Amino acid sequence: MSKQLISMSVNGKKLEQAVEPRTLLVHFLREQLNLTGTHIGCDTSHCGACTVDVDGKSLKACTILAVQCHGSEVMTVEGLAQGGALHAIQDAFYKEHGLQCGFCTPGMMIRAYRLLQENPNPSEDEIRIGMSGNLCRCTGYQNIIKAVQHAAKTLSASGLKVAA
Known about the structure:
- By secondary structure, this protein is α+β, with helices and mostly antiparallel strands.
- The protein has two domains: 4-77, Beta-grasp domain (Ubiquitin-like (UB roll), Roll), CATH 3.10.20.30; 88-157, DNA polymerase, domain 1.
- It is 33% helix and 15% strand.
- It contains five helices and five strands, in the order ββαβββαααα.
- The protein has a five-stranded mixed beta sheet, with helices on one face.
């Protein structure tokens, strides 16, 4: 199968790369760009471990082809930290113990990032609904909810925008 040249911005860096048209975004990110923070969980879009931000929307990278992202802005968990400093969301997950095994964490953080873009001060119910497309088998979710609340408060108190 012939490759197709695509261009996109990934974590703020513009790139051009040749891909097979059938390559899923999750495989493109992990195998061609070596951005392994985006995890492959269920391959059916149910778990959310592969969640990335594409053009301002949370998408499951196992359900979209890399060629569909031609011209897009893509952010993975690696794009959250800036200048060696953790993003407020990453710091909150650390401080509130919002992870155990860490497998779902990248997708959770990216979904929390988009949720806080859409609603900077969500209630607990809004967080639960907003994060419902991402599954965790370890934490019982309570500390994930606390982490999102903590990040929202930190961002609000500092006057920072959620954007990385």
